[in-house]
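FAQ

Q: What does a record look like?
A: Structure on top, sequence underneath. For example:
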């Protein structure tokens, strides 16, 4: 449904002098495909580019370089009206904090009707019926229609945000840390709701979170980001069972599972700046396997079936991996 090809996002910021501007490398040579009906999990530390990638996937951020293909067509080459009508109704967004994502002065019914009014979906009666259906879909009582967001609990507000994202019957939902502001018990309810909606509606989903253990169980595929680069990507079971990139292994060790015993990996060394990323592999300043070869260029992708990674010294035995075809990647 959506494919990113060699996508770069750079933000200009004022540097050390009055007339000096640096560039923040938010995304570098990102390659990602999202198929219909699948869940893709994006994981990584704060500031690694997850939210920027989400903004690119939802059309809220135009890439500095590279292409975003929607059903095989360049998204930013489409006329604005067509992009809004076709792409805008096909992709829904659930933001991190529903308390700031919902207009505090609008009742829930108006919030849910807004997308339908903007896209002129059906008659007034059709829209009212759709709003009632959306409340039922996310398990909220009918009287919620007249409530303001501030009168709802955190879990209820997030359900309203999910209902709004579903208003136009999208094929894909991009959920950016949708449970991070919620209590643990409410978090489980919202995650279960998303999984039920996926099963009932056949939704595709891009799920972004710091919690790699949660994402691995929800997702069909995982993509691991570090300093704006996708360093590893593949089937969730394969990536979690045998992570190839040292950074992925360190992420799993930092969030141990109750069902598995893992040895904690403590990362040493400086955390690189996004304005002046290191040469070669960006993780080399903290990697215990780094050597001079890691500083030359960003590693070419290596693949074991659908499992791909960028590392000179992967964590899995070399014979199990084969070089990826050059046509399937593009990186600087």
């Amino acid at each position: 449904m959506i494919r990113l090809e060699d996508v770069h996002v750079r933000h200009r910021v004022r540097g050390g002098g009055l007339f000096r501007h640096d560039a923040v490398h938010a995304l570098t040579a990102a390659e990602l495909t999202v198929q219909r009906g699948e869940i893709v999990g994006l994981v990584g530390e704060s500031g690694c580019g997850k939210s920027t990638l989400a903004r690119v996937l939802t059309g809220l951020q135009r890439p500095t370089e590279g292409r975003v293909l929607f059903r095989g067509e360049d998204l930013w080459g489409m006329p604005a009206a067509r992009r809004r009508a076709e792409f805008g109704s096909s992709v829904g967004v659930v933001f991190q904090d529903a308390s700031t994502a919902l207009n505090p002065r609008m009742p829930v019914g108006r919030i849910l009707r807004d997308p339908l009014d903007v896209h002129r979906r059906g008659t007034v009666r059709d829209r009212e019926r759709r709003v009632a259906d959306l409340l039922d879909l996310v398990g909220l009582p009918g009287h919620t229609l007249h409530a303001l967001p501030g009168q709802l609990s955190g879990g209820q507000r997030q359900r309203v945000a999910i209902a709004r994202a579903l208003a136009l019957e999208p094929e894909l939902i991009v959920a950016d840390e949708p449970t991070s502001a919620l209590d643990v018990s409410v978090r489980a309810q919202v995650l279960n709701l998303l999984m039920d909606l996926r099963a009932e509606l056949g939704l595709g989903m891009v799920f972004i979170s710091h919690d790699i253990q949660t994402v691995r169980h929800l997702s069909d595929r995982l993509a691991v980001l570090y300093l704006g680069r996708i360093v590893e990507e593949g089937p969730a079971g394969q990536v979690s069972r045998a992570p190839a990139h040292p950074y992925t292994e360190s992420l799993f060790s930092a969030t141990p599972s109750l069902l598995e015993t893992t040895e904690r990996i403590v990362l040493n060394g400086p955390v690189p700046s996004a304005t002046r990323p290191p040469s070669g592999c960006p993780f080399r300043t903290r990697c215990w396997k780094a050597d001079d070869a890691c500083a030359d260029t960003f590693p070419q992708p290596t693949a074991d079936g659908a499992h791909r990674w960028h590392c000179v010294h992967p964590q899995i035995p070399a014979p199990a991996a084969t070089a990826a075809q050059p046509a399937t990647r593009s990186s600087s």
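Q: Is there anything notable about this one?
A: The chain is about 30% helix and 25% strand.
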